[in-house]
Amino acid sequence: MTVYFIGAGPGDPDLMTVKAVRTMERCPIVLYAGSLIPPQVIDSVRGTAEAIYDTAEMNLDETTAVIEKAAQEGKDVARLQSGDPALYGAIGEQIRRLEALDIDYEVIPGVSAVAASAALLRKELTLSGVSQTVIMTRYEGKTPFPERERLPALAQSGATLAIHLGITRIHKIVEELIPHYGEDCPVAVCYRTSWPDQDYVVGTLADIVAKVREKKFTRTSLILVGKVLDTEDFADSYLYDKGQAHIFRKIHKSKKT
């Protein structure tokens, strides 16, 4: 018996990996958070799974009890996690419980909201000469934050920022970022990326708060900040530069006559 922490991706079932879908479909017990994962993701198992649990209203003790019962019956469990399980998926505390119970588990990665949102915007987040670093973080709320990881400290890098779980505090985020990025810094806010009702808005640190409020985004939104979102002033990378050799490509010099 194994518990599979499956990255369900950002919402669109077509963005789940082949391994994720195949694993989910062979598990008799399926757990997913309906508040974070659209119902279409589990459509393929509705008629085959023995039991499907929406964990949105369940606590850790309750979900662990379901898994423990499945383990006693020798039944594999698909534990769906939105996006990629390694990022804000709270799998650490679940794994700790499983190890204490000596229950086997496996983690299957998924497409993150950051990757899907960049695709929605048709943007590259790492442009040569603009930014080569993406910092994924969240805004300080109930979860304790070390001083070195608070937004003003991270903003000193000037890197591209992907801020999760901060949409209700976007006015505070803007206040903390303007001293480091400037009011004209591009911002994109992506709402429920890849869901049927996905939406997004782009602007700058100077006007993004008003634009977000006009859209009425209040949850399930990713905030992207950085010059890479609106610039043509970047260099070609060395990856395909005909003047740069690497292990798979040599420079072919023309012969002198």
Structure description:
By secondary structure, the chain is α/β, with parallel strands linked by helices. It has 2 domains: 106 residues, Cobalt-precorrin-4 Transmethylase, domain 1 (3-Layer(aba) Sandwich); 117 residues, Tetrapyrrole methylase, C-terminal domain (Methyltransferase, Cobalt-precorrin-4 Transmethylase, Domain 2, 2-Layer Sandwich). Helices cover 25% and strands 20% of the residues. The chain has 7 helices and 10 strands. The protein has a 5-stranded parallel sheet, with helices on both faces. It is globular. It starts with a strand and ends in a 32-residue tail after the last strand. The model has no long low-confidence stretch (mean pLDDT 92). GO terms for molecular function: precorrin-4 C11-methyltransferase activity. It holds the Pfam family TP_methylase. Belongs to the precorrin methyltransferase family.
Write a brief structural summary.
One of its GO terms (biological process) is cobalamin biosynthetic process. 25% of the residues lie in helices and 20% in strands.
Topology record:
Layout: E1 2-7, H1 18-25, E2 29-32, E3 51-54, H2 60-72, E4 77-81, H3 91-100, E5 104-108, H4 113-121, E6 134-138, H5 151-155, E7 160-164, H6 170-181, E8 186-191, E9 199-204, H7 208-215, E10 221-225
Domain Tetrapyrrole methylase: 2-208
Pathway: Cofactor biosynthesis; adenosylcobalamin biosynthesis
Keywords: Cobalamin biosynthesis, Methyltransferase, S-adenosyl-L-methionine, Transferase
